[in-house]
Amino acid sequence: MPIAWTSLVAWPIASPQPVLCTDDKTHLVYELLVMNVSSSAMMLDRLETLDASKGDAGVNTKSGDAIVATLQGADLEATIRGFPTGNTRTVGPFQLTRIFLDVKFAKDATLPKVLTHRFQVTFAPATGTPPLNSSTIVSGRTEVTNTPAVVIGPPLEGPRWVDALGCCSPPSGHRTAHAAYQREVRRLRAVRDRLRPVGP
Fold first, then answer.
1. Using CA atoms in the order 90, 94, 95, 97, what is the torsion angle rounded to 10 degrees?
2. What is the pLDDT of residues 163-192, one digit of tens each?
3. How many CB atoms lie within 10 A of CB 171?
4. Same domain, 97 and 177
5. Is 152 part of a structural domain of the chain?
6. Which of 17, 46, 86, 129 could hold 125 in an S-S bridge, CB 3.0 to 4.6 Å?
7. pTM of the predicted structure, to 2 decimals
8. What was the pLDDT predicted at 72?
9. Distance of CA 103 to the CA centre of its chain
10. In terms of DSSP H, where are the helices of the chain?
């Protein structure tokens, strides 16, 4: 593939892997980092996730069968988590943002082997420079891994266990004693109370 200079560069933190969820659909969940490498503010207008499995077919065509997901407007903004906080479709000059994607397929669908992403963006140059201009940029190419998702089994074995409360529930006597022993409440952020009653 020839090198192309663009004002937007995107890349995934890790390749997505298929996961069959309780809605009986296969999900590809992954995080996309997006950098504005221009000196203008960049507005993310539209994001299309493309099936690029067959060469660069997804890049060179706008046919609907290459598009597996589309986000725009408020739906796109809801997936964005900027640095350090906030969600906005505007990315400042030479700034970085994150987009959390969840691409859904039918349970028995043939999944793409490679995904790429087509961004429609608007650049707003600094005052005194040429007016707003729109651009379509393809970036963020990633393979879809076939590695099975990790399955977490039950944390306890045997009868008579009680699994209750969560990270943010009011502290129990059991948890308070544990916190005093550890001297750090921070270690309890993922704690659940697991009690085994004594007696018949």
1. 80
2. 665 555 555 554 444 444 444 444 444 445
3. 15
4. no
5. no
6. 129
7. 0.69
8. 87
9. 10
10. 57-60, 73-77, 173-182
State the residue for tokens 């906080």: 85
Element (H, E) at 73: helix 73-77
Rounded Cα–Cα distance for residues 28 and 50 (Å) = 13
Measured between alpha carbons, how far is 134 from 42 in angstroms, rounded to an integer? 9
* Lookup result for tokens 């669908």: 109
Tokens of 124: 């707003």
93 and 169 share one domain: no
- Residues 130 and 169 placed together within one structural domain of the fold: no
Say yes or no: 128 and 174 in one domain: no
Amino acid at the residue 117: H
Query: How far is it, in rounded angstroms, from Cα 149 to Cα 20?
Result: 9
User: 200 in a domain, yes or no?
Assistant: no
Write the CATH number for 59.
2.60.40
Closest CA to 49 of 97, 133, 111: 111
Half-sphere exposure of residue 47: CA atoms within 13 angstroms, side-chain side:
28
Give burial (CB, 10 Å; 0-12/13-18/19+) of 118. Answer: buried
Structural domain of 166: 162-195
